[in-house]
């Protein structure tokens, strides 16, 4: 099977939500947003709510790893530092985001989130894998890489 690399990737800015186009080779060069001039990758999970979440999932060409969580959830709080550590490893090959299911109940309902924490991997606007339960950073990284197409 032969895969060709796209000429450019669409990456949604974690700060201003502008859609940026850049060659895949530039991902590792600390690219900045063409609109707000801030870094496109911060090495930390991006907190997203309803409309912002959909834009990032639907318009970003790299895989989007999502942690569905809630502030009252003990396992979610336990996994938080591991998820942040995984973000440092996975970016810029992945966009790493968090969705508070209490604040974004519409997103939780739309994607049928029944337990938290739940990791979900999206590519091309579609969910391609899901993993419920708290896990450590190495497990997050290996799971995300194994499920990305």
Q: Could you describe the 3D structure shown?
A:
By secondary structure, the protein is of the alpha/beta class. It is about 30% helix and about 25% strand. Strands 3-5-4-6-7 form a 5-stranded mixed sheet, sandwiched between helices. Strand 4, helix 2 and strand 5 (about 95-100) form a beta-alpha-beta unit.
First-last Cα distance: 13 Å
Amount of beta strand? 15-25%
Average pLDDT: 94
- Global Rg: 15 Å
What oligomeric state is this?
Answer: single chain
Give a topology summary:
Layout (H helix, E strand, L loop, with lengths): L8 E4 L6 E4 L23 E2 L2 H10 L4 E6 L4 H17 L4 E6 L4 H6 L7 E6 L2 E7 L4 H11 L2
Helix pairs in contact: 2-4
Looking at this protein, list some descriptive labels.
30% helix; single chain; five-stranded mixed β-sheet; 149 residues; alpha/beta
Question: How would you summarize what this structure contains?
Answer:
The chain has 149 residues and is α/β, with parallel strands linked by helices. Helices cover 30% and strands 23% of the residues. The two termini are 13 Å apart.
